Every structure is written in structure tokens, then in C-alpha cells.
Amino acid sequence: MRIFFVTMICVCSLLGADNPKQKLQTLLDSKQIPAKVLSTQEVGHNLLAVVLEHNQNGEQIMLFSSSDGEVLFNVGELMWSEDNAFLTKFDRIQTEFTNAQKAKVDTKAIKLFDTYKDQVITFKAKKPTQKTIYIISDPMCPYCLKEFEKLSSRLESSNVAMLVVGFLGENSIKKASEIFDKKTNDESKNLALLTTIYDREYKPKDLQNQKVLEISKAVAQAGVHSVPYIIESK
Question: CA 52 to CA 113: how far, in whole Å?
Fold first, then answer.
């Protein structure tokens, strides 16, 4: 048995629409939500998985609806059901959607490592390999610090490429700016630089490199909204 929590977004009775997809689109339009219904998929127990695409930025999300298309809602982490086949299908649909969305973001994000190659900090694996781990990181993020502390173990089997952003406020921008200003082509010096600046007690210099703002904006537009963001090449 699994626990389920449902948050209702909107409920609306719509007459005259030919199918659930049309009803859902009419519902979105009536609420002035700038999104298009891309697809619906039966989940079971009179539920549909619904994929919406934002009209302006193209980002996609998955919501759920009643099979008649009259109720649209978001699903949280908690669920109760004795129907294991339903739970398995529900999980599979969500996982497939999440993986597909991450693959799209990964493709866009990796291109930024080429676009901003002068700002990327690279570390070679301890043994020759074609594998590279791409990491988008913020020097003020505690989880990014934990990821940075794994660098040595990462290098056992993979190259590492880091792109630093300033997502988390003024000190993030200052720290990232200092990294950009001081980075070199020497791995050991770059490692020492990152170790110093990622330290929680480090007080950054009053700098603002415009590339930090540009890269941070480009990363967000690619669909990366949290850090560390990690992509492992095959």
C-alpha cells in the first residue's frame, strides 16, 4: 500500500466538448492559463495523465485529470491504493515523463558548456576515458559544496567539467565572478581556487562579472532551475 496526496487545481463542468483533451484545453483557456494540452494517457481508475506545454517558454509539465476531462489536478507524493498494477503504471508514466524532460534539458545544458567554454573549469580523469560528468554549480549552494567534495572520487572514472552560476543571490554572483576572473588552464590552481571560494566562511570580493549574469540566465532558460545539476555522459 502506498500513501497518496492530491492537490486540486481546478474543477469545472464543461458541456459540448467532444473529448477530454478538448475539454481540458477549454478549461485552461477559460482560466487564462497560457498552456496547450499536448497529450492525455489513461492511467486507470478513471484518471488521465495530462502533458501541458507553456505557450511562451515551451516547458512541459505533467498533471492529472478525471477521465471526462472536467477536473484537472496536481499529484503530490502520498497515495493509498491496493491496486499494485495501477501504482506500477502510475510510477512508470511519471518516470518516463521525468526522464524525457531531463533528457531535453541535458541536451540544452551541455550545449552551454561549449558556448561558454572559456568559463568552464575542467578536470581530467586519473585514467584516460571518454566519459565526462558535466556539473552546473553555485558556490553558495551547500549541496554544490558537497558535490564539489566528491570531485576526487568522480575523477577515478570520469573527466569533470564545471560551469559556475550565480543563482543564489549577491554573494553567489560575487563568488562566481571571482572564479571567472581568476581561473587559469592549470588544474591544480583551479582546484585550489574553487576550494577557497566554495568554503562557507569565505568572504567574496566585490566583483560582478557580466558573464556570470549571462550564463546564469542562459542556464535557467535551458530549463535548469536547481543546483547542483549533474549530467553524466555515456
Answer: 29
- In CATH, the number for domain 112-232 is 3.40.30.10
Q: Where are the domains of the chain?
A: 20-108, 112-232
User: In which region does residue 69 sit, left (phi positive, over 0), alpha (psi from -120 to 50) or beta (all else)?
Assistant: left
Instruction: Provide the terminal-to-terminal Cα distance of the chain, rounded to the nearest Å.
Output: 36
The CA dihedral of 30, 36, 39, 42, to the nearest 10 degrees, is -30
For residue 228, say if its preceding peptide bond is cis, omega within 30 degrees of 0: yes
Decide if pLDDT at 5 tops 80: no
Full-model pTM: 0.80
User: Comparing 5 with 211, which gets the higher pLDDT?
Assistant: 211
For 20-108, the fitting CATH number among 3.40.50.1360, 3.40.47.10, 3.40.190.10, 3.10.450.520 is: 3.10.450.520
Residue range 173-196, pLDDT digits in tens: 999 999 999 999 999 999 999 999
